Amino acid sequence: MSGTPQMDDQTAATMNQFKEFLLSYNKVSEACFTDCAHDFTSRKVLESESSCALNCMEKYLKVTQRISQRFQEFQMQSSDNSIIQKIQ
């Protein structure tokens, strides 16, 4: 019986992570669509719209990656400072 609560916690964490991913995906999709899709007179996606959407997504991914990198650097620096303060 001891394995069940852990599995439930793990499943809940996985579901929350997937939920956050979907919210983020929907947010960037909506933002890129709003910025890039302007001509609704044709069923075809225009080359300019396709290019804009691709650039929008690439920029979002690069920004997200950079923010994650900076956050990790900040966490490491905070951890180092905490260790130094404990030593002194």
From TrEMBL:
Keyword Transport belongs to the record: yes
Example GO molecular function: metal ion binding
This protein's UniProt keywords: Chaperone, Disulfide bond, Membrane, Metal-binding, Mitochondrion, Mitochondrion inner membrane, Protein transport, Translocation, Transport, Zinc
Domain of life: Eukaryota
Transport listed as a keyword: yes
Annotated GO biological process: protein transport
Subcellular location: Mitochondrion inner membrane
Gene Ontology CC terms, in alphabetical order: mitochondrial inner membrane
Chain ranges of the Tim10-like domain: 14-73
Major site of localization recorded for this protein: mitochondrion
Pfam families, alphabetized: zf-Tim10_DDP
InterPro entries the record matches: Mito_inner_translocase_sub, Tim10-like, Tim10-like_dom_sf
Lipid bilayer topology: Peripheral membrane protein
UniProt free text on domains: The twin CX3C motif contains 4 conserved Cys residues that form 2 disulfide bonds in the mitochondrial intermembrane space.
Membership in a protein family: Belongs to the small Tim family.
Biological function: Mitochondrial intermembrane chaperone that participates in the import and insertion of some multi-pass transmembrane proteins into the mitochondrial inner membrane. Also required for the transfer of beta-barrel precursors from the TOM complex to the sorting and assembly machinery (SAM complex) of the outer membrane. Acts as a chaperone-like protein that protects the hydrophobic precursors from aggregation and guide them through the mitochondrial intermembrane space.
SUBUNIT field: Heterohexamer.
Name of the featured protein: Mitochondrial import inner membrane translocase subunit
Organism of this sequence: Capitella teleta (Polychaete worm)
